[in-house]
Amino acid sequence: MTxxxxxxxxxxxxxxxxxxxxxxxxxxxxxxxxIGGGVSESPxxxxxxxxxxxxxxxxxxxxxxxxxSLHSHxxxxxxxxxxxxxxxxxxxxxxxxxxxxxxxxIFNIPTGIFRGFENIGTDYGMIMAILGGDDAGGGVIWAPxxxxxxxxxxxxxxxxxxxYDTKKGQSLPEGVAPMPLLTDExxxxxxxxxTRDVVPHYVARYWDMVALADRKPVKVIGENGMLxxxxxxxxxxxxxxxxxxxxxxxxxxxxxxxxxxxxxVFWDGGEAVLAPGDTMSVPxxxxxxxxxxxxxxxxxxxxIGTDDPAGKTWTPE
Length: 317
Known about the structure:
This is Cupin domain-containing protein. By secondary structure, this protein is mainly beta.
């Protein structure tokens, strides 16, 4: 058993992954599927590690002023900022609330709301994503205006969840209807929480997590985490102060994702150095450990599945 490693420099982007790939303002984004099948609507999307983990790992890379259109998922969607400065917004029209995230910050977006995001930095930025479930909830639910705008720019989404590009002469296959727009009645089921409703319970700031992880890893997302939730996986942050040479293993695959510094990961028979943007899948039952390999700031996210269903975000009593 040896880990699978996807290097940042080896990531293969897809520029036609979703329905807004031709829509001005969204047509320069790059999507990455690192672990699991993801939710791409395009056959062009490359999957780096296909084996199931109980969750999916992906990423979005965007130049400044590029945005991802309003959509929703049936399972959890968690982002942490790898590079750049990002504005997240939500609601039917994207004006119910918003928050700006810096490098290392993490956002456990409530399920059942429309959300979008844009790079408001001055350079190309990257956000890493964790999606609940092996099938990531069965796809993306788009706000009606996104589907209408896409159609005006040549992309049609079929009810089978696949994209067809009329600019390339493609059309819906016989027997496949366009993806229906949500009705007014259906749209009433999507909440419109304010910034005050969301940020205190779903956003964790990098430096707050670092302060709490000075002696042992801090549980960021979990039943007893900083962000109390049970989305089918847990997320911890490990820092230089809380890293240990002790070997350990898990009964299911886990994932290591550095956000700051270089990390030496070692296991029986091998070792590797991970840098920010790299993703390592550690097999179940493999004894391993991870420590910073250089001086300076160091932090990494650790993700592992749980037995909780990958459904609607759990709200504590």
